[in-house]
Write the structure tokens for this entry.
Amino acid sequence: MKQGIITSYSFLRLQSIAFFFIIVWALLIKNFQILFVVWKHIELVNKILFVIYFFTVLISVVVLIKQIRSLYFNDDDDDDQNTLKRIWVVFNIILYYGVMAADLYLVSQSRL
Amino acid sequence: MFLRKILGAVLIIGVLFPMLFFLNPFMWGMRRPPEFIPSERLEKVLERMEKEINEEEPVEIDTYDNEPNLWYLRDCQNKTLDSLSNLKVSLSTIKNDRFVKEKIKKYAPLIEAEIDCRCYDSLLFVYDLRKEEVPSNAEQDLAKKYGFEKQEEEYKRISIGFKIRKR
């Protein structure tokens, strides 16, 4: 079966790292707000990050659905090879929830 | 095979469903309420003051009516404020003016000591003083005759301020 780049291991890894980074940044802002306040441009940075993360989430919706389609709705691939990928996609979906929460948290910290 | 497809459908719904919340612009505006949140120690002092006044008459002490919110405090820390504002402590309606004034004088330095942030100019106590006037009999009769309800209670707003720091 032809494996697309979107379901390759390296892409899944990249996706997880990107999601993880977004969550870690939001947690940093949340827990060390005092440190960030010292730097006066942090509000602007967070506003820009909100927009970037916003589009990241929108793109990742399409990517996740494509991944699910090719991993779960494909009849002609063997099971053993793709079980790990299927679990990984579920893991990424959980991270994706975290990313959405992080994005909403970031925007709640800026005055629009 | 069939189970896998069901699981896939559930996952797709799981991916799409949160978009209902995420694409809702009202969610982007979600923020901390613009309300002054007193520190725990300040709250304890206020509680003690409330308790002490409550021995004489029921009263409620609030600090919600304060301008300083999250942004005010942040701007203060970044030193981008033009002017500092007051910390306003509002008490509910009060009858015994002298007693409360005594208590305020007693507690003002304590409250001042608990405000450790440098973002306040002065401390302000605000309360309504209730003046009870008993209308005379003739007045009452007249009011009854014409169906008037004479307002028996008058409120007088009183503010007491303490300077915390010089600008």
